[in-house]
Amino acid sequence: MMRQRSWIVLAIVMLANVWVWGQVPQGWGVVSGQVLDAQGKPVADATISLFPAVPFEGGLPYAVTDADGRFRLVSPPFGKAWLCAVKPSAGYPDTNSLLFAPEVDDRPEIFLAPNAVFAQDVHLARPDGILEAQVIDAVTKEIVPNGHITMRRQKPQAIYSENIPKDGHFLYAMPSAPIEIFVTAPGYRQWRYGDKNGQNALVLASSDHQRLTIELIPEKENKPPLQH
Predict the structure, then answer these.
(1) Which CATH number applies to 129-216?
(2) How far apart are CA 99 and CA 187, in angstroms?
(3) Statement: residue 114 has pLDDT above 90
């Protein structure tokens, strides 16, 4: 266990050196390339995430594209892995997560051999629709700072769950598939998405940008029984 923890600490230190100083640890690989949208235009400020085929622990290396959509990613030699360009505000989700994956897997596949240096561009399809929301108290209209969102997809079966930022605001690029959405917070009733037609799953088209104000209803206080 101690040896495993030491490896994780060492990996974190090495990754910090890579991101801050641009150093390449011995045996690691380097992937460089450019992220282009469906029209062939560069995508700036996209995060390049990596998903290895083998099990892993700890954080994974990442890179951010520059103004010309170019990136340089330094990584341990994981072997087979996939690249994904993530920029939710432009409609590009983290398709390494099954809930956000398209019907056809279009992630570039790479092989991170020791000391490998190669180029790999990322060509993006049309952007997904965008869901943006603010979570507030239904009574006070104040921001709820400790919310939690859970999203569920049936085909393929997938669940995505995480804490909402403390400012109560969240934004996701959503696949063109029915997605059930639940928001909870301590002391409040669960909120579930539903539209005016009675549909309990959100479906967004590529050009959609839906904005919601989610009002959480406080739970009723449990009053102590009257004393006789």
Answers:
(1) 2.60.40.1120
(2) 28
(3) yes
